[in-house]
């Protein structure tokens, strides 16, 4: 079994990936800084579950702190790195650019530099569908030019791909960038529409439907994403430098998504139709031929089924989702 460093292990995707890896018998070293971008209670609740595994090694570290990152590699000697920590969110990057500069650029360099010094076998990291920016050709293919990011978030993710290229070229470090497409599911992210819309429905608050509901997203269920990440960490036949889309290959209009959520929750949404937001892309749609070929990736969860799992998880975790809401209200007041 392998020692795998997972950064962002208290985050949504990191938590699920770390769980799958410990369940498969790997030793997982988990790094997170539990920052308050959204309720740390949610991050702690995820982390608590991981701590139930004896071969899970939790480390509260900020990736910007170079010495702590160095110490982590010295003490734990990870063989593979799965870098999922980042400052996410397109809209927040318009208000708080420095959070992206710190975690997504500085943090990335600290980690990849230690990874190459430690000669790890593979460095897998999260990129994003947002790198496709203003592209209009659909579906988005890894071969498309990605030179027009329309948010700072997207620009930092594209920068990560370019930095990874340099590390592969200079040091022979094998790097795999995974472009995730709107990942959703249980233990998800409170800043994303599926969570904030459901919360608003529960509390009879108005939801803003951007671009008058015409935006389309390739919603991808967390379990499908985890199977893709796990394959990216372990399959044998990858090139030294890889960029791979992990999406559902089935974009849905936001209005249909809201209607499905209403039906599953048995609630009506109070909707306000508003124009598109700066930084938002109109549609995302993943070409997943490469993921199928190289990772055996085959998303299995239709939106209806995945949202059902999310709604049921949300309803079973009222105390936690209330705490998340209180945190959100206190930090926006
Ligand atoms: N969820 C999606 O739909 C989606 C889509 C595209 C890309 N991504 C990318 O996937 C990755 C995981 O996203 P997520 O949805 O799980 O987000 P998340 O915010 O739930 O998880 C990220 C975790 O990283 C931690 N973190 C942030 N900066 C850190 C730092 N400097 N040091 C240590 N820990 C730090 C946070 O505390 C958080 O727990 C991110 O890189 C994100 O940009 C996610």
Describe this structure in words.
By secondary structure, this protein is of the alpha/beta class. Helix content is 45%, strand content 17%. It has a domain at 3-181 and 222-248 and 285-299: Rossmann fold, CATH 3.40.50. The chain is built from 12 helices and 13 strands. It is globular. It starts with a strand and ends with a helix. The strands form 4 sheets. A 7-stranded parallel beta sheet has the order 3-2-1-4-5-6-11, sandwiched between helices. Bound molecules: nicotinamide-adenine-dinucleotide. The site of nicotinamide-adenine-dinucleotide (NAD) has 28 residues, from helix 1, strand 2, helix 5 and strand 5.
Distinct ligands, ions and cofactors found in the model: nicotinamide-adenine-dinucleotide
Low-confidence stretches: none
Distance between the termini: 48 Å
Oligomer: single chain
Keywords:
333 residues; alpha/beta; Rossmann fold; seven-stranded parallel β-sheet; two-stranded parallel sheet; 45% helix; 17% strand; globular; binds nicotinamide-adenine-dinucleotide
Topology:
Elements: E1 3-7, H1 12-23, E2 27-32, H2 40-50, E3 56-60, H3 66-76, E4 80-83, H4 92-95, H5 97-117, E5 122-128, H6 152-171, E6 175-180, E7 183-184, H7 193-202, E8 206-209, E9 216-217, E10 220-221, H8 222-234, E11 241-246, E12 252-253, H9 254-265, E13 270-273, H10 289-295, H11 303-316, H12 318-332
Parallel strand pairs: 1-2, 1-4, 2-3, 4-5, 5-6, 6-11, 7-10, 8-13
Antiparallel strand pairs: 9-12
Helix pairs in contact: 1-2, 1-8, 2-12, 3-5, 5-6, 7-9, 9-11
């Amino acid at each position: 079994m392998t020692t795998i460093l997972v950064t962002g292990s208290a985050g949504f995707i990191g938590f699920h990936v770390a769980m799958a890896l410990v369940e498969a018998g790997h030793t997982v070293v988990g790094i997170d800084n539990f920052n308050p971008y959204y309720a740390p209670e949610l991050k702690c609740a995820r982390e608590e579950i991981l701590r139930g595994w004896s071969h899970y090694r939790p480390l509260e570290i900020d990736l910007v702190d170079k010495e702590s990152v160095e110490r982590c590699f010295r003490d734990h000697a990870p063989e593979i790195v799965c870098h999922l920590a980042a400052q996410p969110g397109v809209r927040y990057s318009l208000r708080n650019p420095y959070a992206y500069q710190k975690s997504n650029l500085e943090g990335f360099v600290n980690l990849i530099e230690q990874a190459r010094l430690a000669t790890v076998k593979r460095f897998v990291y999260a990129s994003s569908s947002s790198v496709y920016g203003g592209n209009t050709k659909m579906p988005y293919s890894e071969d498309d030019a990605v030179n027009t990011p329309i948010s700072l978030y997207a620009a930092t993710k594209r920068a990560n791909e370019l930095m990874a290229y340099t590390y592969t070229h200079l040091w022979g470090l094998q790097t795999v960038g995974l472009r995730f497409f709107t990942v959703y599911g249980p233990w998800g992210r409170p800043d994303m529409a599926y969570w904030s819309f459901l919360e608003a429905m529960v509390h009879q608050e108005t939801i803003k439907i951007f671009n008058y509901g015409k935006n389309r997203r390739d919603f991808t269920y967390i379990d499908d994403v985890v199977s893709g990440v796990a394959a990216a960490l372990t399959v044998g036949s990858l090139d030294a430098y890889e960029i791979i889309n992990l999406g559902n290959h089935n974009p849905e209009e936001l209005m249909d998504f809201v209607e499905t959520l209403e039906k599953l929750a048995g609630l009506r949404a109070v909707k306000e139709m508003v124009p598109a937001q700066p930084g938002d892309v109109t549609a995302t749609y993943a070409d997943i031929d490469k993921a199928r070929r190289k990772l055996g990736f085959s998303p299995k969860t239709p939106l209806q089924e995945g949202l059902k799992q999310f709604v049921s998880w949300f309803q079973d975790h009222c105390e936690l989702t209330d705490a998340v809401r209180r945190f959100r209200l206190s930090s926006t007041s």
